[in-house]
Amino acid sequence: MNLGFIENKTYDEISVGDTARTEHVLTTEDAMAWASISGFTAVLDSEGLIDRAVSSMLPTGPNMWCASLISGLFATNLPGPGCSLTSVSLTFHNRIRVGERILVKVEVTAKDDSTKTVIFDCEASNDASASVFTGTAQLIAPVEKLRLSTLPVPKLIVNNPHRHHLGFIARAASKPAVKTAIVWPCDELSLGGAIQAYKDGLIVPVLVGSEAAIRNIAGTMQLDLGSIPIVDVDVSRDAAIRAVEMARKGEVQMLMKGSLQTEELMKAVASREGGLRTGRHISHVFALDVPSYHKTLFVTDAAVNIETDLETKIDILQNAIDMMVELGVVNPKVAILSAVESVTPAIPSTLDAAALCKMVERGQITGAIVDGPLAFDNAISSDAARIKKIKSPVAGDPDLLMVPNLEAGNILFKELQYLAGALAAGVVVGAKVPVVLTGRADGEQARMASCALGILLAKPAPDLEG
Hints:
Layout: E1 4-7, E2 19-25, H1 28-38, H2 50-56, H3 61-76, E3 84-92, E4 101-112, E5 117-126, E6 131-140, E7 147-150, H4 165-173, E8 178-183, H5 188-199, E9 203-209, H6 211-221, E10 230-232, H7 236-248, E11 254-257, H8 262-269, E12 283-289, E13 297-300, H9 310-326, E14 333-337, H10 348-361, E15 369-374, H11 376-380, H12 382-387, E16 400-402, H13 406-420, E17 423-429, E18 435-436, H14 444-457, H15 461-464
Parallel strand pairs: 8-9, 8-11, 9-10, 11-18, 13-16, 14-15, 14-16
Antiparallel strand pairs: 1-7, 2-4, 3-6, 4-5, 5-6, 12-13, 12-17, 17-18
Helix pairs in contact: 4-14, 7-8
């Protein structure tokens, strides 16, 4: 590790007119880190834009963030180590927004020999040369010379697992509410989540399940169901069949899993008689908001298809690509995962990966840049790929990870959830309507994000007929 050094200026070495400067771009991560430290609450603005919301929520937050730039300038530059900041008085003239470059300057205007106090004028401007603040600062300068070793500043990862999913939720909120069958909302979590999505204007719910149980739970939670329709069905399996029938007839545009088993719901959805099949296999896609990753990371299929042959994988891949394109991901990059990055007859998933890539090359699978087989390390890390001499347009920047089977996918997404702090939203694709699957351990934000994905994929009601 290369060590640097920082050396201060003592009181006697400081002269009136001395200056120091620094500049910094306010990023969303900066603002969210400051919000976390200082106790501000992050909210969406009227258009659901987190960057603008972070900016607008901080009439005082950026002020203090700028003050911290001044403190850092004093502590590391002029005077440097050993000084003691005693007061700062700043007047702000313009609001700081995410993405703006702030240039900060301090200049010595006076010294007091009796107290070793130094007075500074302070000013800052943005990259349009508009004044951000002016003011003064006072500090006690060091009297002893110090030369200290410095270490690289550790990379700060702001663990905001909602930052990418907030965009999905905001986009869903801008669309008309989607009529949604909530299948067996017979526990507090699933009923409460559905009602919250209703209050937020995301869905128009139809509750399909035991009316007595639903009303009892609503009473316990003090929820007013108002005029929300309830389709009274006594058994969860029958509730799934009834909800699928409603979707098939165009009475609802989306299904959302309640407290029944996933297998019960998916059996009704995938039924060859009365289900919601299309010309493709039905599959599942997770959208993961991973704090350490720079964009939404999709994973397929980790919930529906257990062991898949090549024919099924073709549909799984095309389903996921079509979904991402629908969500606005242009020409998504897909890494087809296996245990190794070379085609190896002893590992069948590598052969499937090679075949899928050839089908993409020939236009049999469309809409994405696809590479594989890739091991997880060289799919996610361009450094790992470079070290292994792998040249790939996907390595280090995938939008989608396609796993070899459900077992591998389930382990992968749960590892990212519980070890990397990822927020997982999931939806079933390849059926006539999107099916929102939520786990029993999913919190409100995960449920809202899953709901948002379904809304963005749902077709307008007239398109469902026939």
